[in-house]
Predict the structure of SGNH hydrolase-like domain-containing protein, acetyltransferase AlgX.
Amino acid sequence: MNVSGKQSSAPRTADRDAPSAAPAELPAVHEAWLPREHPLHRPRHGAKQYIALACALLFFAAPVLSWTLGNRAERLENRELASFPSVTGGWGFFTGLNDWASDRLAFRSQAVAAVEGISEGVFGEPAPRGSDPGGAPVGGGGGEQRRSTEPDPELFPDVVRGKNGWLFLGHDVSYKCLPDMELDRVVAGLRRWRSVVEASGREFRLVIAPDKSTVYSEHMPDEYVGRDCMRKLRSEFWRRVPEATGAIDMRPTLRELDRRRDEPVFTKLDTHWRHTGGLAMVRRLAESLRPGVTDTWKVEPGRTYQHRADIPALVGENREWTVRSYSLAPDGGADNTRFVGSDFHEPLHLESSARPGMIREPTRMIADSFTQFASPYLAASFADLTIAHPNNVLTDPERTGRMLAEGEVVTFELSERFLAGGRYAMLAPDMAEQVGQILKRNPV
């Protein structure tokens, strides 16, 4: 009660939640259509917005314009170019446009080469590059979350420059320092595959293709990012995996070849072995299946051809090396090799009439790019062979299982860096189980 009889000027509590006045009515048109002097006028796009829109349009239109003018995108990295995203992919269409446009920028290879040249010529060091050139490994790993104490993937270069011009793939190091799967799980995965194959009555063989940096560690630089963690896991890998899985270890064979030959089994520029290494793998594999079968083999020098080196391409360099192939007559007679180019993503079937010195049993193989340098000699010495890529196990286990079920022998050729790094998705237990069920329904 106001004892003075005067009205209080303090607001009442209830009035605090009440609107002080009715809002002004908004105009019926968009702010951009109002007169500039109107207090609510706002332009639809500012100058910075127009610049951003123009840059975005240029970025995405450049690949189309350059293609129209005859410029074609080239692979600079160890992966396929990003494909145009599907319009049915929802927001994935917009997020996928960036990778597609980046891969198809005009003069991209020249730009990469220019950056490399400036870095080396002016600063005396290679241009810094990330550890992952955008390409996925052959398979996915276990997906464990990395601990904060582990090195940053961006610290690892795509290419490790060794001594006397030797180049090494950066993944030889980074995959071992940042494994997707612990070595125990890698061993368990390989042993599970052997178990399901042999349980179906088939023979199983596993060949491990060693990294170039393992065979020629003396040509690696004295110091490089990840040296200690790479060496530690590499040592443990070769100490445990061949014995625990029954794998064929190619290292002694390759070193013996090196002592007997004038040129190394690997080149300075490519991450794969030469045909010499591929032929040696085929010989070891055949002897493991039928001892003495190679006694009748006649091997002679074959044709030579130029091959684009894969490691220089990662830093924008287009360099080649001379491939020296061989002829292989399993019975000592006519050459029986067949050169069929394939990355094995679409299974490659090789068949010929059985001759002495050949493996006659139908053989089915899971193999990666190292086997590309062995396939002519597999064709010469295996009468019935089909080769599929490790990724096929993940993308279509049913089809891969049916393919393996056609064979009496199942062979895996897998690379050290992907095994040691746990990068093969097929090592997951469910992958072996799915394929194993198909083999079990079709025993030998």
Notes: DSSP finds 15 helices and ten strands in the chain. Residues 47-68 form the longest helix (22 residues).
